[in-house]
Amino acid sequence: HPLTKQHSCLQKILAIGTQSGALRLFGRPGVECYCQHESGAAVIQLQFLINEGALVSALADDSVHLWNLRQKRPAILHSLKFNKERITFCHLPFQSKWLYIGTERGNIHIVNVESFTLSGYVIMWNKAIELSSKAHPGPVVHISDNPMDEGKLIIGFESGIVVLWDLKSKKADYRYTYDEAIHSVAWHHEGKQFICSHSDGTLTIWNVRGQGKPIQTITPHGKEDGKKPEPCKPILKVEYKTTRIGEPFIILSGGLSYDTVGRRPCLTVMHGKSTAVLEMDYPIVDFLTLCETPYPNDFQEPYAVVVLLEKDLVVIDLAQNGYPIFENPYPLTIHESPVTCCEYFADCPVDLIPALYSVGSRQKRQGYSKKEWPISGGNWGQGTQSYPEIIITGHADGTVKFWDASAIMLQVLYKLKTAKVFDRNRSKEDKGSTEVSDEDPFAIQIMAWCPESRMLCVAGVSANVIIYRFSKLEVTTEVLLEVRMQYELNDMESPEGGGGGGEQTSALPTPGASPQTSGPPSHPSTSSNNSDGGNMPCLKVRSTPLKQSPGYQVDLVVQLVWVSGEPPQQITSLALNSSYGLVVFGNSNGLAVVDYVQKTVVLNLGTVELYGSNDPYQRQPRSPRKMNRMIFAAGLCDINEGSATSEDRCKSPTSDICAVCLVIVLLFGCFTSLCFLLTVLLSVCPPRGANPLDHRDNSFSRSRSSSVTSIDKEAREAISSFHFSETFARKGDSSLTPCLYVGTTLGTVLALGLTLPPAGEQRQLQPVIISPTGMLVRLKGSIMRMAFLDSTGSLLPPAYEPWYEPNVTADGEEREKVRKRRPVSVSPSTSQDLSESQYAVVCSEKQAKVMALPSQTCIYKHSITETSFILRADVVQMSQGMCVACFCANGHIMTLSVPGLRPLMDVNYLPLTDMRIARTFCFTNLGQAMYLCSPTEIQRITYSQDICENLQEMLGELFTPVETPEAPNRGFFKGLFGGGAQSLDREELFGETASGKASRSLAQHIPGPGGLEGMKGAASGVVGDLARARIALDERGQKLGELDERTAAMMASADSFSKHAHEVTENIYYKYKYDYYYKSKI
């Protein structure tokens, strides 16, 4: 949650402080820095030392810190911790080294920002207010000096008292009293007037020399009710900015009428007789007006307003009519809708980011300011990364965003709105009477992306899967075809299946067998027109034409449906392979394989049926009583010759459709328990009403199926991961075949062999055949990740299809498209003898194993954790080879070598404090990882030595020295007769000689870690001669100070020695005198 911000008008840098004690510094797009206060206390105020390369931060724990911005990694130079008083406001005049600090007790203390020591000069509240006043004026809410007289300080107290304090005479010149509490004060640049904002929604304008009543009282949003306007909400902040030509600007936040219930937060801009009310999407935290000059006694010439919202940053252009906003280049909109999942891809194809940027640039909204982004300070880092990186975030509103994460930048490339596929206008009958929650029905749960083919597949919380193709051309989808599978419902008298009133099911096909053609169903009542209103998907696909802009365009929509009043289970795993043209997804009851090329369901299989007769688990029925049992389709889509052709079954009657909605009646909706740890339940799919979709003539014919016994929740086995690869499908095989490996939550890895038609026209007509080939291995815990290596230990990524333009239809281009669609196989068949082995790397929540193929023997095994469990695991490519990277729930990040599984690194990095971390943590190649450290921030980390060594060069420079503009000209008559800006020798006034020493118990000075050593590092960068000269002076001053200290110590030592020598001399003198006297007597 951001709390405050400050802008340096010369360096053009913006600083934002947050409630968690973080600092975010922004310069030009790509120049950004993150700092954190160790205490974690909220940042209440920030003050730049303009053109000095430093920043002062005040925290809620009553500490003040001086940050050095002259180095790439800002560090704290000094800290001051107040012990007896609470800090409420700070003010640092331009080109001054004396910081005014107001407190809750109403006192003002003064700090030297160079040494960070307190001055003995203190303004006590009882001296500031009238002696006759017995009430305490309240905390200090404002401090600022008169723009024309630095010796006059205006102090605003919360109770409504404003005092003009004379610093030299140490007394109050004028006092101004108002009945309502004050929130802020702002000067007119001539120093003759100031304006106050109050808790009743009024603005009062005062003459400095007229202390009786305000010369004007304004209620910007008050309605006239008789003589006095009705009270409004407090005006939290006001700024008063002047221009050489035209009326001044009065800018304020708050002050709306109390009867505007539900109205969005507003920023009000009053310019002359016009008043503009600018509505914001989120509550306003703070705002700041950007001006041309840093001098407060000159015409301000405001040109923009930076508005800090709770969840956004808005910059308004004051120079254009209508006050348009600037297009924000910063990655602050990552939480525009809450992030529900994310993926991280490093070393992507080089043409991918330009392609996404090209289509994303066309999405820009109209109405932005035509000017360049005004916050343009700093310089980019010198180091460059040789590979592009992309982060994809899925959001609660169904949005998918692509971000350029190359080097250390984060910039949005493209935004995809998946909710456009569905019909948002649902009647009450559609929603049904038993609706549970419908807050985020479009939320993204899992994403699968192939960077080479640019195919994208997303799974939502409403049990839907959408497949997208990337196109540079715009297309309008005229027809969205809905194709649904039928299912069977059997009433079984016993778990053995004897007797029943339903249709008998056919046997499960044997592995590798071709599907037989089934006739049409004998009971039409088993279609979607059930009396219980079931068989409805959670979302309704829109039936009107859909205009799809260049970018990602929907190719296929798959939905699971309600069955017998039970909602579908959420999808727990998802994978796609562009070379095979297949998408596979699973949940707690089974899996489905969809051929998105032919728009068919290839396989619809229950988890138990993956094992066949080799099921290692004892699964008992819940009870022997009569029950309705769901039928899992275990066969293939019937597209052989028979009652209907593949053309009739799998395609729309219209030949030019661009997308197909495939509503699959997968019987995954029988149970409601959650078996997969990382699944985030954002909302439960609500029941939809009793208006089923119309039955289509081209629906799929009955699939082969077999009944599955109902099992206990403890024995439920969900699908947790998938992996496509060209490998040895069975034990002892001598040839490589395409395979799909399935991992379950009980630690089993099962293999399915894929028989694919030849590329080209045959791929459009012939079916894909899938046959189970048995179990590969079993591990402890849920299967997290699978990967395959060749005999040398190099990764074997799945085959992929190069991207092609899908919307080109010309004959010559069509032939070119078919040629390009030949899959690119990255299997070792071209460089490796097929008799050589491969390695399968499998990682579960508890352990990792490496299997040799085709012998299927375990050659390496490693127990990763016994007391905890793994949240995320990936097999990643490093610069020197491969490794298994794991993030454990106890906060450890570990890496293991492959194939040997030797521990390489074990760092206790981050304990699991929020499920958000578990949901969003992901590894990528070349030693990088990321997660959401808060709902609004992405944290990127690296465990690569190469990146760590180059990180300093990759960082940008925040501070760039700028020549300070000349002070405004006083003019001949003002210089002759006075009236211009009056300067003040603050050193003489606040120094120790004049004011004495401050109380040591009031505040404690804490030296920071970023002293001169940190500043030396900054001097070697672009700071240049000015910074080096400054540091040299600081070093000289420090050395002179050390010399003074040594000289003083030597003088003290000499005095002590002299005193001691004098005492010894006296002792010797009296001793000898006594001896002489005694001897003479004798």
Q: For the largest beta sheet, what order do the strands appear in spatially?
A: 34-35-36-41-47-38
Oligomer: single chain
Distance between the ends: 96 Å
**Main beta sheet, described?**
6 strands, mixed
Number of strands: 64
Radius of gyration: 37 Å
Q: Number of helical segments?
A: 14
Shape: globular
Low confidence ranges = 431-437, 483-533, 621-714, 814-822, 826-835, 1012-1031, 1076-1082
- Return the structural class: mainly beta
Q: Would you kindly provide a written description of the structure presented here, covering whatever features stand out?
A:
Residues 431-437, 483-533, 621-714, 814-822, 826-835, 1012-1031 and 1076-1082 have low confidence and may be disordered. The protein has a six-stranded mixed β-sheet. A five-stranded antiparallel β-sheet has the order 5-6-7-8-64. A four-stranded antiparallel β-sheet has the order 1-2-3-4, with no helix packed on it. It starts with a strand and ends with a helix. The chain contains 14 helices and 64 strands. It is mostly beta strands and 1082 residues long. A hairpin with a 6-residue loop joins strand 7 and strand 8. 13% of the residues lie in helices and 37% in strands. It is globular.
